[in-house]
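Limitations
The structure tokens in this dataset are predictions for the assembled complex, not deposited experimental models. Users should treat interface geometry with appropriate caution, especially where small molecules or nucleic acid strands are included. An illustrative entry is reproduced here so readers can see what is and is not provided.
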Amino acid sequence: MKVNNVILQFTTKIVFFIIFFFAVHIFFAGHYTPGGGFVGGLVTASAIVLLLVAFDLKTVRSLLPINYIYMVAIGLLIALGTAAIAMFLDEPFFTHFFDYFYLPLFGKTSLHTAALFDFGVYLVVVGVTMTIIQTIGEDE
Amino acid sequence: MTILANILVIFFISVGLIFIAVTAIGLFRLPDLYTRAHAASKSSTLGVMCILLGVFLHFWLNEGHFNPGILLGILFLFITGPVGAHIMSRSSYLAGVKPWKGTVRDDLKEEFERMKKEQGIK
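Predicted assembly:
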């Protein structure tokens, strides 16, 4: 039965951004507090699943025209690339580097290559979760 | 200052606990799904919001740690709790759950019949 879903869709439009920015916060807070790439990726995927529940598969695909399988591949490449940087600098595989930078607006910030590795994990987790859910959802 | 902060914290957390206990009693005592959804959505949302506010005030006033995540959680619960209850009770109405036999008014019924006729179901 077709029903009018105004309340759910309007709430989703607001709540999606809350969940997504919370996921970004979890991702960047992962170095010093609980969180990180895995949890951030799962929360982002859950925000997209909320969109899938409120709207349908086709609408979400036109909203976010992402091929999630490529997303997994790019994430794996980023993770492998950050691990391989050290090999070109005469250090063992997976050696991470960090330094302090003075960014405008942020002030003194420590940037760490582990964040790039975490970003790879993030992309893989979002891609795998969304691939699984979309594949199950498509089956008629 | 500490006494005032502690009074606020204890007030909010105990009010939240009372509301959650009322929710549990309502879930046992009320006769059908819709009245239970009414009890469960309203009072438990308010109860959890009060407890979160108490926790927020404790960490802010006593420990000196301002945690905006808890405020975001309060906002999130305030938005999503009632919407979840709305979706659940509407889907159970569409699935054919009958209201309690003492119900005197059912405004959704006409709309439901009209919708069924429009889409040609049954």
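Some entries come with short summary sentences. For this one: The longest helix of chain A spans residues 113-138.
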